[in-house]
Specification:
It is built from 4 helices and 11 strands. The protein is α+β, with helices and mostly antiparallel strands and 186 residues long.
Length: 186
Protein backbone atom coordinates (compact mmCIF):
# COMPACT_ATOMS: atom_id res chain seq x y z
CA UNK A 1 0.00 0.00 0.00
CA UNK A 2 2.81 2.39 0.94
CA UNK A 3 4.60 1.55 -2.31
CA UNK A 4 1.45 2.36 -4.32
CA UNK A 5 0.98 5.71 -2.59
CA UNK A 6 4.66 6.55 -3.06
CA UNK A 7 4.52 5.52 -6.72
CA UNK A 8 1.37 7.61 -7.40
CA UNK A 9 2.90 10.59 -5.59
CA UNK A 10 6.06 10.40 -7.70
CA UNK A 11 4.02 10.10 -10.91
CA UNK A 12 1.94 13.12 -9.95
CA UNK A 13 5.07 15.16 -9.19
CA UNK A 14 6.67 14.18 -12.49
CA UNK A 15 3.58 15.11 -14.49
CA UNK A 16 3.37 18.51 -12.79
CA UNK A 17 7.04 19.18 -13.51
CA UNK A 18 6.56 18.07 -17.12
CA UNK A 19 3.53 20.37 -17.60
CA UNK A 20 5.45 23.28 -16.08
CA UNK A 21 8.32 22.73 -18.56
CA UNK A 22 5.86 22.67 -21.48
CA UNK A 23 4.28 25.94 -20.29
CA UNK A 24 7.75 27.50 -19.99
CA UNK A 25 8.54 26.44 -23.56
CA UNK A 26 5.28 28.00 -24.80
CA UNK A 27 6.07 31.24 -23.00
CA UNK A 28 9.53 31.35 -24.52
CA UNK A 29 8.12 30.86 -28.03
CA UNK A 30 5.54 33.64 -27.80
CA UNK A 31 6.64 37.13 -28.72
CA UNK A 32 4.94 39.73 -26.56
CA UNK A 33 5.56 43.29 -27.67
CA UNK A 34 6.06 45.13 -24.42
CA UNK A 35 7.98 48.09 -25.83
CA UNK A 36 5.69 49.20 -28.65
CA UNK A 37 4.89 52.90 -28.58
CA UNK A 38 1.44 54.30 -27.88
CA UNK A 39 -0.49 53.54 -31.08
CA UNK A 40 -3.86 54.68 -32.38
CA UNK A 41 -5.55 52.65 -35.11
CA UNK A 42 -8.52 54.20 -36.90
CA UNK A 43 -10.67 52.34 -39.40
CA UNK A 44 -12.50 54.75 -41.72
CA UNK A 45 -14.60 54.94 -44.85
CA UNK A 46 -13.85 58.12 -46.79
CA UNK A 47 -15.93 59.44 -49.66
CA UNK A 48 -12.95 61.32 -51.17
CA UNK A 49 -9.16 61.21 -51.00
CA UNK A 50 -8.08 63.35 -48.06
CA UNK A 51 -5.77 63.42 -45.05
CA UNK A 52 -6.56 62.46 -41.47
CA UNK A 53 -4.50 64.00 -38.68
CA UNK A 54 -3.82 62.89 -35.14
CA UNK A 55 -2.61 65.56 -32.76
CA UNK A 56 -1.17 64.52 -29.42
CA UNK A 57 0.19 66.30 -26.39
CA UNK A 58 1.38 65.67 -22.90
CA UNK A 59 1.13 67.94 -19.89
CA UNK A 60 4.30 69.81 -20.80
CA UNK A 61 2.28 71.36 -23.65
CA UNK A 62 -0.66 73.66 -23.01
CA UNK A 63 -2.05 73.14 -26.50
CA UNK A 64 -1.63 70.98 -29.60
CA UNK A 65 1.28 71.88 -31.90
CA UNK A 66 2.29 71.09 -35.46
CA UNK A 67 5.37 69.28 -34.10
CA UNK A 68 3.10 66.77 -32.38
CA UNK A 69 0.92 65.99 -35.39
CA UNK A 70 0.86 62.89 -37.57
CA UNK A 71 -0.74 63.11 -41.04
CA UNK A 72 -1.93 60.04 -42.92
CA UNK A 73 -3.67 59.90 -46.29
CA UNK A 74 -7.10 58.39 -46.80
CA UNK A 75 -7.32 57.02 -50.33
CA UNK A 76 -11.09 56.61 -50.75
CA UNK A 77 -10.76 53.17 -52.31
CA UNK A 78 -14.43 52.40 -51.85
CA UNK A 79 -13.66 50.15 -48.90
CA UNK A 80 -12.64 50.63 -45.29
CA UNK A 81 -9.09 51.78 -44.63
CA UNK A 82 -7.10 51.33 -41.44
CA UNK A 83 -4.84 54.21 -40.50
CA UNK A 84 -2.15 53.45 -37.91
CA UNK A 85 -0.63 56.34 -35.95
CA UNK A 86 2.44 55.50 -33.87
CA UNK A 87 3.45 58.14 -31.35
CA UNK A 88 7.17 58.62 -30.68
CA UNK A 89 8.71 55.98 -28.44
CA UNK A 90 8.36 56.81 -24.73
CA UNK A 91 5.79 59.57 -25.41
CA UNK A 92 2.75 59.17 -23.18
CA UNK A 93 -0.16 61.37 -24.27
CA UNK A 94 -2.39 63.24 -21.86
CA UNK A 95 -4.75 64.26 -24.69
CA UNK A 96 -5.49 63.51 -28.35
CA UNK A 97 -7.34 65.36 -31.09
CA UNK A 98 -8.58 63.87 -34.35
CA UNK A 99 -8.66 66.21 -37.36
CA UNK A 100 -11.05 64.58 -39.78
CA UNK A 101 -10.26 66.38 -43.02
CA UNK A 102 -7.70 68.81 -44.33
CA UNK A 103 -9.03 69.93 -47.67
CA UNK A 104 -12.48 69.10 -48.81
CA UNK A 105 -15.69 70.47 -47.32
CA UNK A 106 -17.61 68.02 -49.51
CA UNK A 107 -16.04 64.93 -47.99
CA UNK A 108 -17.87 62.54 -45.70
CA UNK A 109 -16.23 59.96 -43.49
CA UNK A 110 -17.40 57.20 -41.26
CA UNK A 111 -15.20 56.08 -38.40
CA UNK A 112 -15.82 52.37 -37.95
CA UNK A 113 -13.63 52.10 -34.87
CA UNK A 114 -10.70 53.63 -33.02
CA UNK A 115 -8.31 51.32 -31.18
CA UNK A 116 -5.77 52.52 -28.64
CA UNK A 117 -2.79 50.24 -28.00
CA UNK A 118 0.07 50.58 -25.56
CA UNK A 119 2.33 47.79 -24.36
CA UNK A 120 -0.02 44.87 -23.67
CA UNK A 121 -3.17 47.02 -23.39
CA UNK A 122 -5.81 47.52 -26.05
CA UNK A 123 -9.11 49.44 -26.03
CA UNK A 124 -11.51 49.80 -28.97
CA UNK A 125 -14.18 52.44 -29.40
CA UNK A 126 -16.78 51.18 -31.86
CA UNK A 127 -18.71 53.51 -34.17
CA UNK A 128 -21.86 53.19 -32.04
CA UNK A 129 -19.95 54.55 -29.01
CA UNK A 130 -17.97 57.42 -30.56
CA UNK A 131 -20.01 60.23 -29.00
CA UNK A 132 -19.40 58.71 -25.55
CA UNK A 133 -15.68 59.49 -25.91
CA UNK A 134 -15.32 62.21 -28.55
CA UNK A 135 -16.98 65.56 -29.20
CA UNK A 136 -17.09 67.25 -32.63
CA UNK A 137 -16.27 70.93 -32.99
CA UNK A 138 -18.66 73.36 -34.72
CA UNK A 139 -17.32 72.51 -38.21
CA UNK A 140 -18.25 68.84 -37.91
CA UNK A 141 -21.78 67.64 -38.62
CA UNK A 142 -22.54 64.21 -37.20
CA UNK A 143 -25.52 62.31 -38.57
CA UNK A 144 -26.67 60.01 -35.75
CA UNK A 145 -28.74 57.85 -38.11
CA UNK A 146 -26.03 57.10 -40.68
CA UNK A 147 -23.15 57.56 -38.17
CA UNK A 148 -21.29 59.62 -40.80
CA UNK A 149 -19.34 62.86 -40.31
CA UNK A 150 -19.61 65.69 -42.82
CA UNK A 151 -18.10 69.18 -42.67
CA UNK A 152 -19.17 72.81 -42.82
CA UNK A 153 -16.90 75.88 -42.66
CA UNK A 154 -19.72 77.87 -41.02
CA UNK A 155 -18.06 81.15 -42.00
CA UNK A 156 -14.87 80.39 -40.06
CA UNK A 157 -11.60 81.79 -41.36
CA UNK A 158 -9.73 78.70 -40.16
CA UNK A 159 -11.08 75.39 -41.42
CA UNK A 160 -10.21 72.73 -38.88
CA UNK A 161 -12.98 70.13 -38.35
CA UNK A 162 -11.98 67.92 -35.46
CA UNK A 163 -13.03 65.60 -32.68
CA UNK A 164 -11.78 66.35 -29.19
CA UNK A 165 -11.72 64.01 -26.24
CA UNK A 166 -13.98 64.13 -23.18
CA UNK A 167 -13.63 62.86 -19.62
CA UNK A 168 -14.58 59.29 -20.60
CA UNK A 169 -11.69 59.26 -23.06
CA UNK A 170 -9.37 60.75 -20.42
CA UNK A 171 -10.28 57.87 -18.11
CA UNK A 172 -9.15 55.43 -20.81
CA UNK A 173 -5.84 57.29 -21.13
CA UNK A 174 -5.34 57.07 -17.37
CA UNK A 175 -5.81 53.29 -17.59
CA UNK A 176 -3.27 53.10 -20.41
CA UNK A 177 -0.47 55.44 -19.39
CA UNK A 178 -1.11 55.97 -15.69
CA UNK A 179 -2.62 58.75 -13.65
CA UNK A 180 0.65 60.65 -13.15
CA UNK A 181 1.34 60.84 -16.91
CA UNK A 182 -2.12 62.28 -17.60
CA UNK A 183 -2.17 64.82 -14.75
CA UNK A 184 1.49 65.77 -15.19
CA UNK A 185 3.07 64.48 -11.96
CA UNK A 186 6.40 62.70 -11.98
Amino acid sequence: MKKTILFLSLMGLLSLTSCKKEQDKKSEGEVVKKDIPFTVEINVDSKKKDAFCLLYRDNSLGYFTEDNTIYLDMWAKGESETLVFELPKNFLPSDLRFDLTCDDVGNEIKINYITLMYKDKKFTIENKDLENYLQPNEQVVFNKETRIYSFDKKGAQVYDPSLTTNTNFSSILVDFVGYNAVVGKK
